[in-house]
Amino acid sequence: MERIANPGTRGYQTAAQPLMTDAPVPAILVAEHILHLRQRAGVETNFADLLGLTYLAHALTLTCHGEPLFLDNVEAWAPGPSIPAVYGSFQHHRMNPIRRPGTPGDMLLGPKARAVISAVEDTYREDDWRTLTGRITAPGTPWYNTFFGLGEGSVIPNEAIRIYYDALIASAGAEEQSAVTH
Question: Is the model's pTM score more than 0.70?
Answer without folding.
Answer: yes
